[in-house]
């Protein structure tokens, strides 16, 4: 039996949420003003943001009305996450807060606790967090609410995702381009997004851009983006009986919301009946309302309501300034709390009786706790895609690791339609995952050329040249219980450094919330790495994302550098099954030598690192020098270097250790994958020099190895910001991770470790230094790489070198 | 005497630039096809991007026409920086390339070298770089061209900045919001930006969003942004006499450009005469043209021209495939090189005679080599703003470091109008630089409320809630020879991690170019740090930008953590005078204790670190434990800890070292500011334990200290991703950088260093552990901070503690 709310119901509810929002910011005692307000009722530290609260409360009231009237499952994403008091007030009154947390149950005690605990140490913070029911987006760092909403709506045909976008947030780049996302939304198969632009003209202190735009400009802009804009100005009602009590023009606001849902339903109906028009125009509500609406109009001779002065704590010092105390008292009493709450402090039944029930409540929509509805993927056996390895000639055959994984992912798509997507900012083809397009088109609903078979109305592939949009969409998709991978150029993933950092915070906090279930991991698959940016050069060389990840909570981050195709298959398989993590996988798209069989790769990946016997000196005894390597290019160079060394000075005992799970380097006490000291010493015997050839900035290895004793014995090579358009070999050489530099470093260490080989080492160094110079001259002269670089025919090359007199 | 080009001139010039662009990608020999084309004429590695070249060439031809016809100083910013072959062709023909580089002088030899060296090791790379004359933007990482253009135009009233925006780049967030920048451009005092959206429908392999939009959608969108859009479709002319020779519809294209310049001139004239209309509508040219235009129409049965297949190297294998060789031959000869170039290979005079001359050439506009026209700022003596320090009670007085610096910057603005700006994404007031608004309004030309005095048509302050836009504008402003500071919330500067990384690359490459003069440094002034985000909490705590900076080239980066107001003044003064760097300054906005007089601060900042005798044990002898600190909060905690320790166990010899220039920690061989080992040992005596209390992630210190011997003796505290809305003290404690944790760590080390004090140390540890617990309980219970935390009345607190029995 549906209880449709009247306009009066909406206003009472709005007053109650406004009251609770303001009370949370100010009161530690006397939460319902049943006593005269005294300074000691005020919190000692006044924290929070009032300015956005009344608008959020208005939107929430009208959204609840839609939910009730249409029985519409609705997820709310609140861009202005600093409006937490508003959201919490709504969650309290609908009872979901109390359902998640006993201390906030829907009664007088709960109301008192809610008011008192807000912004208090241990209580709800001043922003939305994973602790807030119904939340999949904090809204702390602005810009991503809208794209997160679209990600949540994808493949969720019955869901409505309402998204509040503040006019401050609307100024950000990520939001400005996210408006295009309706061009990717299929009204038949996907859900709907209802954006509500919350225009209240001011940021912290300054005018907003959108606040300064005319109605015509706003209409044109959103028309241009492809929407049907619905402009509505919310204001005090002229029909108010008592002008001291705030009454909003609910009829007009309700009409705007009705118009929006009507348009959405018609659009979906037509598309689902096969009558959908091209370029579907979804509604967007542009809601103007006064900033800090219903607060004191003026204080200390300055306007408060409708200005930036209402942004945070509008009445600044009620504890010490009697005028402020009086202003606060009048403001709070203007909502007439005695009409909203019972004597015992619980809300009057009339205020809340019409609200949505059960899973229709904003705080209880299952999609906002995605882990609770997540189903594991159907993943084919990755070993079916194994590349054959000739164990007698490892490295002789080359293949593109990414291409191999593309075939695996093609079948993953096929087995998981409607719950698995690839979000890719710079095109799957360019990252050599083109095979996936055999299983799925790129979904794009705007008209496209007829001769392009890989683009269409429906598909598991999302491509847009916006790392921000891809990241936020994928967050929305994962947090609502689905699965995804983010293939990306390595250099440009740093564009989302800060987004990843915020997402890591979301995961960390989620882990602390008992009722929140783990969602699928966020899987970054980086390719088109800096070491082979032949067409692009220096700007496309930036491996620092990895460093950012290492600063996050150990429980939530993993970094994998699979050295070949079979290891990449095993790694991706693992990542797709994992939950609650940010997995960073860095892989190569160029044809590169292949080392391990599927069986070996599985073992190698399970351990995270291995001694590669076949690339080490044949000895069980003391090792003279360890060649450690992580990453496709550093590994290949290390294998060649080891071979050159073993062929020229067989007496020098070299061990090659490949690391595929970078965090095994961290100490066990810092990271769950970290080796204990005994294990570490097994691979890197104490006192033995280690030449570490690394894919990224050396700083990453320095911070990981910091707590290991005897760090002077580690020499770390990596990317040192040298680059331009040049040959692959010259680029490796410029950064000192090439085979000859490694040979030189090993010989240098070897000469000290093994005095009897000193002379031999010195001679050999000179020889290989000459070879290196010759190779660089060759590249310079012929505009091509060293012979056989990409084919990695190690033996002929090594033989040639060995054949030279040294 | 102006030589206005005819339409035929434009087409011949276009053919010549197209020819040279294609030749650069393909030919190592026979650059003008004077012999039959053979496989060995083809470069061994074919690198580069053809797709965007013909469009860039068309735009450049028509821009040159405007420059000549209007004698208009014009700076070109090319968003599709991967179209370097096109830009280089134009620079070669106008002679600027030859003026900068002898080997590319405007003759046959120069043409041959240009064609041969492109993408060759040591030659011009496939993207624009600082080596390219006329370039202030690489266009490698997409998204920032447009805002860079606006920054270049600010305070440059005579300049036209033309900006090509690819339809790929247009999908990025930063570009999508940068369109709003006309709302910040004052037609009276600033220059003009002419954006040209280069719509050719495809990215690497996929359709572009803008390519799929209808004409109406495009017009509405740009109307909404506030522009007057001029749509033009470039195509093969129907009037072509010989259909094998490409001829473009130049008349229509020229009309579009005329319309644009006409509108710009009228708009500027009216505003400069005081008749400017509100909401000035600037033109934007929306230019549709076929991708890869004029290339082979079809090859191997697939369409090439007008599709994504022309993006990079459209004819893939002319070295080995005779059909491809033939296609390439026909394509190149379609431009009829014999009509464009003399026998000796130099361009025919008729092709180039009409081009702009001297400083009007795109490659020679002085603003593109900003260092050459940069004038140092007029900076008042910073000591005028000194905060008085009572040397007998250091730390007793508190002040906001940022506020003090705001007064300094107010006068800096006053002395440098029109050549100094603040670019601030999250409002100067919020970062406590409000004093600057006494000297300058926030510039914003769209209508604003009459009652806001701090916003207006003209000012030195730029505020927009978009870190991307602020960063790109500031780059454009600096690179054209001016000065600026970027005040920003610390947590959100990570939004521009990757932009900073790209800018660091630009500076590094610039240093290698002889003719490029150094521009003013990019000064980040970070505040609203994570340690005091009372209103916001966990999402506002992210100090990782510093880590990213440390991975850049040492010559270009500096990191300063001034501990108080006088140090901040000295640091900012230094940064505003410096050139060629990225200076990162992290400062506090909350009232915090003040330590050093101006004179002491000057000395401290000059040295980069000092032993603070007044906060250390009175001893010249051996030190038991060094307390090192960097950053305002870690320093304050360290000073209090030292005092607590000295009062409770006077026999323990403690040295407090404050570090204000973080890079002195790096080794001298790695960074010019690095201490040599002798200097380092002076501050941190070998074998002495060091407790390092750091502002950011501990990883930054780990990587800096990596190469110092005996790293086991360093214990590093910092931000470890613990946070929520809580009291300041609880936040410090949660991350283990609070005074009591420091006391504990020092006592722990002291007990080992000084066995005779062992028992005393152990007792004292227990006592302070209890105090710490008590303080945390206090915060939890009372919702307020430990007593006197913000006032830092050290003595009463310390006495109270000392008075307790232990």
Automatic annotation (TrEMBL), chains A, B:
PANTHER family: PHOSPHOKETOLASE-RELATED. SUPFAM superfamilies: Thiamin diphosphate-binding fold (THDP-binding). It holds the Pfam family XFP. NCBIfam families: PRK05261.1-1, PRK05261.1-4. Its cofactor is thiamine diphosphate. InterPro entries: THDP-binding, Transketo_C/PFOR_II, Xul5P/Fru6P_PKetolase, Xul5P/Fru6P_PKetolase_C, Xul5P/Fru6P_PKetolase_CS, Xul5P/Fru6P_PKetolase_N, Xul5P/Fru6P_PKetolase_ThDP_BS. GO terms for molecular function: aldehyde-lyase activity. Residues 5-372 form the Xylulose 5-phosphate/Fructose 6-phosphate phosphoketolase N-terminal domain. Residues 589-793 form the Xylulose 5-phosphate/Fructose 6-phosphate phosphoketolase C-terminal domain. GO terms for biological process: carbohydrate metabolic process. Belongs to the XFP family. This is Phosphoketolase. It comes from Rhodopirellula bahusiensis. Keywords: Lyase, Thiamine pyrophosphate.
